[in-house]
Every structure is written in structure tokens, then in C-alpha cells.
Amino acid sequence: MDKRYNAMSLSEQLALRKQAVEDVLAHPEWSLPQAIRHLKTTMRLTTAELATLAGVGFRTLQDIEGERSEGTVQTMNRLFGVVGLKLGVVRQ
């Protein structure tokens, strides 16, 4: 957890995770980098922590967040998989 915040109980961490997922699902207009940034900040993770949890490179995550790279579908699924989400295609 980001050291700028006080330690939280497990139930508080789970509540933040649930809120982050609900926020992302409620805003389909957000770009993928915006959604990743929101998940990271809401769950109070550093870029390094999220990259480690997702199994992606630190620089890769930085590039995605900075919109210098779109990232692959596999990378996005790893990042969103941290909170139980997965990219998909839906019919409108």
C-alpha cells in the first residue's frame, strides 16, 4: 500500500477494491489508462505495487498510464485481473 496513507484493515481494503471496480464499471466512457489510474489510486497502490501484483513491467505500466502505449490485451487483462475484471467485446 502507498506509504502516504495509514494502514487499513482487510475489510477496509476490500471495500476500496469494491468501490474501485464499481466506479470503473459505472464509467464506460473512461479510456483504459484512466480506468487503470483510477483503480490504482482508489486502492491506494503505487505503480510498482500494481505492476508487481499484475505481473507486468513497471515501465510498461508507466507507459500505459501516461498514454504513451496502449498496452496489449494480455497486459490489460493482467492489470484488470488484479480486481477480477477482464476485457471483452460486447454488442451495442
TrEMBL record:
Domain of life per record: Bacteria
Annotated InterPro entries: Lambda_DNA-bd_dom_sf
UniProt GO MF annotations: DNA binding
Gene3D superfamilies tied to this protein: lambda repressor-like DNA-binding domains
Protein name as annotated: Transcriptional regulator
